[in-house]
Amino acid sequence: MGEMIKMVVVLTILSVISGGGLKGLEEWAKPKIENNVMNLVKGPAIRGILEAADNDPVADRFKITDGDQERNIFVGVFGGTADTVVVESSASGYGDKVGMVVAINMAEDSLRGMAVTTHKETPGLGARAKDDPTFSAQFVGKSISDSFSVSTDGGQISALSGATITSRAVCSGVNQAVETYNRLKPQLEEKIKGMGK
Amino acid sequence: MAKSIASEFTKGLWKEVPPFRLVLGLCPVLGVTTSMKNGIGMGLATTFVLLCSNILVSLLRKVIPAKVRIACFIIIIATFVIVVEQMMQAFAYTLFLDLGVFIPLIVVNCIVLGRAEAFASKNGVVKSTADGLGIGLGFTWALALLGFVRELIGTGSLKGDVFGLVHWDIPNIFGASFEPFGFAVQAPGAFVILGLLLCAMNLIPSK
């Protein structure tokens, strides 16, 4: 019996110390990691889809309150007018969350492009959502009045072969970004009015 | 005593180099050694986990009940692996992107658990430190060597850095007309080159 109690006590203490320590470490590392993700993953992805923009969308970003959370919004200036906003979103894929950035043309209410940023999908299958430009190119220029889905579900996006779950996640992430955009549209218009002269 | 501490350290560097002499821990050995940079990064990450877990396991070896020792070792190892993962994301994010899933997989690296079970749980802190450091650095040079050979043959040049401290960039080692042997940086090439290195290591006696 004494041994039994000792086992429980030792395991509990170890787990508590480990869990507490890691929580502290995570709090400490979180801003550094977010900074790295912004510079090395999201930044290049956003610059990639807004290649023709006159400004640097990553530098011209602002935070906006959406309900109880803050969102990063990136602004793209085309032909002298700030008409494009980039919204971040994520949806559950085959591995973990699939994070993406979605650029929306506010003048036409259409997609200017999208790119997958962070993911843990299978290399060679789901990871092609990020690596294969022909997949993300399907979203370019599509109107946001319809919601997006893969063709096996009756939608307009051809899924990556062997990665239907990832393709669905990307579609649902884009839909979420569009929802966010529609919800915040009045605020966004107000915010970017003065930009891009 | 001093001699035996030194020998605990040096055995990992040559006599018991995990991938070459014991043929252990081959998953990261084959998976990440597409370049020397990745090999060194992975090796150092594993060394850190091995060193910390060895020290902690040997400190706690009298407290940990025998029946749940493996569970305790795994908690300790997993904690340090997450530490490495967070630190790498905070300070060496590009390396983290290259190594990807292999960093969390250090938890199940048989070398780390093997040293905890076979050595640190039976020996004192000083010896366990020497053992962890030796085995870890042995693992690192093995990965670096394999990465070096694969990158050299597979791309014809060497390029990289270690945590931004040391840089190297040597393009076209074999001259501009060299056609890179792309097979070497693909998965089957890893097996072939590891096999050849094992063969070379066996020609040199371990004693």
Fold and architecture overview:
- The complex is a heterodimer of chains A (197) and B (207).
- Chain A is of the alpha+beta class.
- Helix content of chain A is 44%, strand content 22%.
- A five-stranded antiparallel beta sheet of chain A has the order 1-2-3-4-5.
- Chain A starts with a helix and ends in a 5-residue tail after the last helix.
- The model of chain A has no long low-confidence stretch (mean pLDDT 88).
- Chain B has one domain (2-147).
- Helix content of chain B is 67%, strand content 5%.
- Chain B is built from nine helices and two strands; from the N terminus they run ααααααααββα.
- In chain B, a hairpin with a 3-residue loop joins β1 (158-162) and β2 (166-170).
- The longest helix of chain B is centred in the last third of the chain and has 31 residues, at 125-155.
- Chain B is globular, with a radius of gyration of 18 Å.
- Classes of the chains: A alpha+beta (197), B mainly alpha (207).
- Chains A and B meet through α1 of A and α5 and α6 of B.
Write down the Rg of chain A. 21 Å
**What is the structural class of chain A?**
alpha+beta
- How large is the share of residues in beta strands of chain B? under 5%
Major sheet characteristics of chain B: 2 strands, antiparallel
Number of domains of chain B: 1
Strand order of the largest sheet of chain A: 1-2-3-4-5
What is the averaged pLDDT score of chain B?
89
By DSSP, the count of extended strands of chain B is 2
Note the beta-strand portion of chain A: 15-25%
Oligomeric assembly: heterodimer
The chain-level structural class of chain B is mainly alpha
Rg for CA atoms of chain B? 18 Å
User: What pattern of helices and strands is seen along the backbone of chain B?
Assistant: HHHHHHHHEEH
* Overall body shape of chain A: globular
Low-pLDDT residue spans of chain B:
none
